[in-house]
Amino acid sequence: MVQRRAVTAVLAAAALLVTAGCSSGDEGTTGGGSAFPNARSTEPGSPSSQQSAEATPPAKGSVKVLRTVTEDLDTPWGLAPLPEGGLLVSSRDKGTITRVDEKSGKKTVMGEVPGVAPAGEGGLLGIALSPDYASDHMIYAYFTTASDNRIVRMLYDEKKPPGEQLGAPDTIFKGIPKGMIHNGGRIAFGPDKMLYAGAGETGDRGLAQDKKALGGKILRMTPDGEPAPGNPFGDSVVYSYGHRNVQGLAWDDKQRLWASEFGQDTWDELNQIKPGDNYGWPLVEGKSDNPKYHNPIAQWPTDEASPSGIAYAEGSIWMAGLKGERLWRIPLNGTKASAAPEAFLKGKYGRLRTVVSAGGDKLWLTTSETDGRGSPGKGDDRILEVEVK
To answer: Could you give the CA distance from residue 382 to residue 67 in angstroms, rounded to a whole number?
Structure first.
């Protein structure tokens, strides 16, 4: 297993305290480790007795990198495991989707997504499989065009030659504002089979508090791109607002939605998402005493996170840090952190972009050294198989 750089400091007890934020440049380079107290729970019908009845993960966890699955990826961003085996990975700058054999590491370019216009933090970003993938073989993708960010779906036909396996994109949703920064980009189907998308505010802070704007939001829609039934603002795809740049979405074993969010200069956040709630940006960054704003469950000072993807496994949220170059574990008890977050892999593999459950105690983890803000070395970028506890 290749290590990109030596660890510059022993992971000390301070790394068990919650910390980490990200600068206004968002996807920046290297940091420390510590944590912040739990926020109040705003989940209705979640009394402390219910939370205490839930299984609580141990205060201390562990991470073991089992192997490097594949190397030499170009700006990997989205990652989607196929039920029949194989990992789909999107290239932000090339606009391609590649299938990786998770056993041999062999890479097969499935095709290029037409209309992708990579620039800054934009390009081909998140990907997700249709909830009916077994029958329809549809792949969803979020990407930046010359005019907006949009979500499309494409038929995957592995019987066709490499490079020609993606069908023509069917645009299901468009008009999400784009920018050189803060394009959001993470998409995921929830337990309700609705499609959720993190949409950044593009650097235009006012969008986040405007309920009619699509930027600075978490969006929820049907697989056809229509406002999902039960959304909080009537005939709108807006699910929550007051976000700066959400790039991580995951559900726990109680079907609660969690999201990671880039802060500006002070606090990055892990939030438990409630429909219709206001998460404060740009009026609040991190925790607030104002009950109008939903407080984060955990927050990190600048340089220790710049969080992108998150996944749920073994009772904890696992959060990939770009600038922080580490994998954070946030153990949960209901809608609160049950112990201080822990940092793992600090500085060993560089910037970490996406983390996805591989089932049980395993995760898939991608690096992000070729995104223009890293220091790529031999083999970058790569997918790692990780065992967590």
So the answer is: 10
DSSP-derived secondary structure letter, 167: P
Q: pLDDT tens per residue, the chain (389 residues)? A: 444 443 333 333 333 333 333 344 578 543 333 333 333 233 333 333 344 468 899 999 999 999 999 999 999 999 999 999 999 999 999 999 999 999 999 999 999 999 999 999 999 999 999 999 999 999 999 999 999 999 999 999 999 999 999 999 999 999 999 999 999 999 999 999 999 999 999 999 999 999 999 999 999 999 999 999 999 999 999 999 999 999 999 999 999 999 999 999 899 999 999 999 999 999 999 999 999 999 999 999 879 999 999 999 999 999 999 999 999 999 999 999 999 999 999 999 999 999 999 999 999 999 999 999 999 999 999 999 999 99
Beta strands at 336-337 and 327-333: parallel, antiparallel or unpaired: antiparallel
In angstroms, the CA 74 to CA 96 distance is: 10
Domain carrying residue 307 = 13-388
Residue 4 lies in a domain: no
CATH of the domain at 269: 2.120.10.30
- Supply the DSSP symbol for 166: B
